[in-house]
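Cont'd.
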Amino acid sequence: MVLDRVTAPEPDAILRLMRAFADDPRPGKIDLGVGVYRTEAGETPVMRAVKAAERRLWEEQRSKGYVALAGDPAFLEAMCVLTLGDAVEGACVAAAATPGGTAAVRQALDLVRMTAPGATVWVSAPTWPNHVSILTAIGQPFRAYRYLDAETGALDREGMRADLAQAREGDVVLLHGCCHNPTGVDLARDDWARVAQDCAARGLLPMVDLAYQGLGDGVEADVAGLRSLARAVPELLLCVSGSKTFGLYRDRVGAVLAVTEGSATRDRVAARLAGLNRQAYAFPPDHGARLVTMILADPALRAEWEAELAGMRARIAAMRGALADALRAETGSDRFGFLADQRGMFSLIGATPAQMDELRKEHAIYGVQDGRINVAGLTRGTVARAARAIAAVLA
Ligand code: LMR
């Protein structure tokens, strides 16, 4: 028997939490687990521009025939402009649409594995657990670089620099474009410049995972660091997700982009990315990608999308401020002041797994075992109770 020997993987901590939350009958439960945006009413809405584009697509679409292995070129062009702007020559960028940002990460890392199997991929400590899971699954060597200074809740600049100094030519440095998951700590302009200089001077390949554009400081501001990096290095891998930025979670919208040195390399990389798609799922999904393309191309839809995204960003920032204030009042200290300074959905509150268990069991507050909370899961109505519980458990 073959299937009889299959072993189940360790359950994914984030996804296990989703199930546990759904099964919890307590009425006041608060979901600060999986990284989805929620409104003040606790909903994850279909964005208005998406709804409008969907209506139009329903009217106008005449075929569901295959598009192309790399996806619709108009979508890839739109993603390139949205993320990289004029930082690079479009002619140097190879790209492929993927089912979500996760598949973009997978395809990018598969490309690395095929081309440089001995290269070490440097990941921040901590990073999104699926980075580690994918690296482990494909057998690519990886090492961690220090990132979060747990004392201050800020970037551990010295640690990051010292660890990346050990990277060798041809190694890959995996960075988060903005709204770092799980720390909420982003690189400042100078940090991007330093990493760019390091990569260019020492032949390191930067790989940027960009899943939260527009949820930190703004659609353009959130990619300023990425663009400065792209201007400074000869090559770059970029993995983009449309899940959070367009609220298209289940439609699986993503793209992998490779900035290359010239068109000959670009053509080979593009062919390889299309080939990776072919082997993994043949054609990438088109529906969500088409909606994104329509929104970005139509000034009215784009304005509607940007306005709603700005509202989401403002709500997250407001929840950060409210939680930091409530925790200041509860603890009489500024211990959690960093929450207001960080960006995006996530922060680490410095809790042990046992404390996260206690938050869940005693207070019906669901956060990830590593101490990550999704601030976007809070509302004006729940923030005080969450602060009280966090203060009680972490006291
Ligand atoms: C998260 O980090 O919670 C999200 O990116 C969802 C996921 O797939 O893990």
